[in-house]
Specification:
By secondary structure, the protein is mostly helical. The chain has one domain. It has four helices and no strands. It is globular and about 45 Å long.
Length: about 100
């Protein structure tokens, strides 16, 4: 199987992430995202939403969007370095990585 391109990896990641329950998501965050990074995304999203007068549900989802981008980048880096893969490139995010 040829390696995935960035778009394919992003879709696989999104599909996998959508299937996770809250406890699994929390485990992934705890293992892969420093607390300072979570705080940064929250504060940055609030500032960004305020500056652009974004309100409501969209403003509330901005930190999650930033976090998804961060997690996707972490996954890409691990796959490129070979740290996030068990030898097969199945595109699945390993919460134990």
């Amino acid at each position: 199987m040829p390696p995935m391109n960035h778009a394919e990896l992003a879709w696989e990641f999104a599909d996998l992430f959508a299937e996770l329950d809250v406890d699994q998501i929390n485990e992934i965050l705890a293992k892969n995202v420093p607390l300072e990074t979570l705080d940064f995304f929250t504060k940055y999203a609030e500032t960004f939403a305020s500056a652009l007068r974004i309100e409501g549900d969209l403003a509330g989802r901005l930190p999650n969007l930033l976090l998804m981008g961060y997690l996707l980048r972490v996954l890409e880096e691990r796959l490129l370095e070979g740290d996030g893969s068990d030898g097969g490139d199945d595109g699945e995010f390993d919460p134990d990585a």
